[in-house]
Amino acid sequence: MNAPSPTLPDAAGATPVMAQFFEAKAAQPDALIFFRMGDFYELFFEDAQKAAAALGISLTARGNHGGQPIPMAGIPAHAAEAYLAKLIRAGFKVAVCDQMEDPAEAKKRGSKSIVRREIVRVVTPGTLTEDGLLDARGSNRLAAVAVRAGQAAIASVELSTGEVECLALDAAGLASALAALSPSEILVPDRLFADPASAEALRSVGGFVQPMPQALAEPSASEARLKRLYGVETLDGFGALSGAEISALGLIAAHLETTQAGRLPALSAPRRVGESEVMAIDPATRASLEIERSLSGGREGSLLAAIDRTVTAPGARLLATRLARPQVEPAAIDGRLDAVAFFCARRALRQDVRAQLKSMGDMARALSRLALGRG
Fold it and tell me: Among 149, 195, 224, 299, fewest CB within 10 Å belongs to which?
């Protein structure tokens, strides 16, 4: 779970540049601020101390504020992706505050004018899209949990591919369903932590848990955000979504609006998954079966590692998803077995298909990056 927001130093008396930093920090108090200054991203105050310790970089000082030296740490902008990956893996959120104009443009407003800067993105574990920050053969899901009138729901999005799912279920099944998704980040209304059963379910799954204001999960506000996200006048085309499903999807929409700074991704319509379609496996049993991860926490030694012979990253992700959420519907199982039997009986065709697939790129992730302006 993320740490409490740090106490900001008093911004009174700050220089114009530091005033920009304080403004960015006030907007994202629980994130490390990557503050662009020329060819470097600089971090200040407590952000610098945390980043220096996590990244193993030098902690220096820049000027004074309030009569004290300002702690500072910097990273080259051209290598920012590698440092971002380390910080995200360490459980931090990072807000990227970029220069929005050339210094020459700023000088046209006067010799003392400073470059305009804005937060262009907030990087969290569940909102990664860059190849360098993702496991090509593994999913990176952002999930949200909501409970209304005794009915629970989980919504999830794979931002790197635009896939969206929602699942209505009994609250007792939260732990099993979340464990099957294995999300990198889970959005949870803060009021839900007061329920011991829900809090225990979240603890058993692990991962980065992001508390969200309860107001963001209210159905009316959630419905409005979903309509805005998809550009529709009504949600009728998505099926008869329950109040809990709308709340969970609304939490994701709110998080994307904040973290993507107005750049909305290209998302598929929510695919509704029936609770009875897949086998429920509680977290303890899942760990002991070593389906996707061995007991040591790595992929090697797991069932997935033993049988994965896929030749594309999307295929590897699909196989992992099918293993993590075994089908229980006979018709769906028979369909998969028929496909396997077809290719088993046609060796030459199978080899040709595999050869063709090897030359294919990861189209879904490439399109998502283009939609977000990161292609």
Answer: 149
